[in-house]
Write a structure and sequence with these properties.
ARM-type_fold, two-stranded parallel ribbon, 23 helices, about 475 residues, signal, transport, endoplasmic reticulum
């Protein structure tokens, strides 16, 4: 029986399936061939990856090592390969050799700098030598050693002090055994005042007490302490004593206490010291007493405009005029002239200071403006008195009188011009001081004492022409 042939309708799907299978095989073979071609035509990529893996491994191995540190000096030196440069070094590229050169930038700062660089990071050369704990321990030992050294020095110093000085308790004990009492300045002044004020004290004891007291009241605080416990008034009352020596030393103490001490000055004026001092100067007293009393008066009046007002009201200028006109009182006359000069210039300086500061209403300036000293001097005849005092012997006395004449020039100019004796005296002094000034120049003294006196004399002569 002849075989039966398949119908065309069943053969068509089989052919299509066979065609799809062949197409898939062809596509698969083609893709494999492309991969082989890609692998053959791009060998650089695989080699690059391999190189990167090698470099990374080398870097990791390099990270575990410490670079060799280059030690620079003050001269340029070539930097070798693989060497690390300490921080702060000066690096340059030598254009002739193409090598990198290094030297120190600052000697003091980088002499001992042995730190290196690793991939741009600073490394310690001896990384494995010291740990942070080692540094902490070393610092603790250093502090401990410093404290021990300081403690040793303190102990040595204390031992030296103990060797040189004894404790105050031991001194007090020794003084108690010797019947010696340690006193403060305040306690000493109280004791001295009590001794002076005691009716049982002899004249010598009172004088000794005042003499010792004068030493303490030179200090401003002590003078104010003397005021606080009433000692100042006791000394002021001592001016009423019938004993000239008591008056002398009481005035001596007051002059030291008044000096540049406004608080004590105010209390002294309120306590009647100014009146008592003027009374002593106006009456017959030994020269030594009047010297000390005049010293106390000068200390009370200087830099105290209120006391100057009271001085003028109580007739102080008349008292001083009588004092300088007495015979044998040339020393007192020079001191009086110096006092007048100080009072006149003091007021002038106060007014000039107020003018410079543009402050015309300070309390002190107002007080000075109430002191009418220059008119009082003119009315009391001091223009003629100071002119006649220029005849005093001694260059120091003449110098003070010349200064006072200059200070009174604005008030006494007319009188000076009408006084022929003053012109003759000035001309005589000019000739005398020209010769003395020439002698100074010959001795090599460019700015001598007599040249200053000659300048004062010539200045007055020019003003009076």
């Amino acid at each position: 029986m002849a075989p039966q042939s398949r119908p065309p309708s069943r053969m068509a799907p089989l052919g299509m399936l066979l065609g799809l299978l062949m197409a898939f095989c062809f596509t698969f073979c083609l893709s494999r061939q492309n991969e082989k071609e890609f692998a053959l035509t791009n060998p650089e990529k695989s080699s690059t990856k391999e190189t990167e893996r090698t470099e990374t491994k080398a870097e990791e191995e390099l990270d575990t090592e410490v670079l060799e540190v280059f030690h620079p000096t003050h001269e340029w030196q070539a930097l070798g390969p693989g060497q690390a440069v300490p921080a702060g070094s000066h690096v340059r590229l030598n254009l002739q050799t193409g090598a990198k050169e290094v030297k120190l930038q600052y000697e003091d700062k980088f002499r001992n700098n042995l730190k290196g660089l690793k991939k741009g990071k600073r490394l310690d050369v001896n990384t494995n030598t010291y740990t942070s704990q080692d540094l902490k321990d070393a610092l603790a030992k250093f502090k401990e050693g410093a404290e021990m050294e300081s403690s040793k020095e303190d102990k040595a110093r204390q031992a030296e002090v103990k060797r040189l000085f004894r404790p105050i308790e031991e001194l007090k004990k020794d003084f108690d055994e010797l019947n010696v009492v340690i006193e403060t300045d305040m306690q000493i002044m109280v004791r001295l005042i009590n001794k002076f004020n005691s009716s049982s004290s002899s004249l010598e004891e009172k004088i000794a007490a005042l003499f010792d007291l004068e030493y303490y009241v030179h200090q401003m605080d002590n003078a104010q302490d003397l005021l606080s416990f009433g000692g100042l008034q006791v000394v002021i009352n001592g001016l009423n004593s019938t004993e000239p020596a008591v008056k002398e030393y009481a005035a001596f103490v007051l002059g030291a206490a008044f000096s540049s001490n406004p608080r004590v000055q105010v209390e002294a004026v309120e306590g009647g010291a100014l009146q008592k001092l003027l009374v002593i100067l106006a009456t017959e007293q030994p020269l030594a007493v009047k010297k000390k009393v005049l010293f106390a008066l000068c200390s009370l009046l200087r830099h105290f405009p209120y006391a100057q007002q009271q001085f003028l009201k109580l007739g102080g200028l008349q008292v001083l005029r009588s004092l300088v006109q007495e015979k044998g009182t040339d020393v007192l006359a020079v001191r009086v002239v110096t006092l007048l000069y100080d009072l006149v210039t003091e007021k002038m300086f106060a007014e000039e200071e107020a003018e410079l500061t543009q402050d015309t209403s300070p309390e002190k300036l107002q007080q000075y403006r109430r002191v009418h000293l220059l008119p009082g001097l003119r009315e009391q005849g001091w223009c003629a008195i100071t002119a006649h005092l220029l005849a005093l012997p001694g260059h120091d006395a003449r110098e003070k009188v010349l200064h006072t004449l200059g200070a009174l020039l604005a008030t006494c100019r007319d009188h000076y011009r009408q006084d022929p004796s003053l012109g003759r005296t000035l001309a005589s002094l000019q000739a005398e001081y020209q010769a003395l000034a020439s002698a100074e120049l010959q001795d090599g003294e460019d700015e001598g004492y007599f040249r200053d006196l000659l300048g004062s004399v010539e200045s007055l002569l020019r003003e009076l022409r």
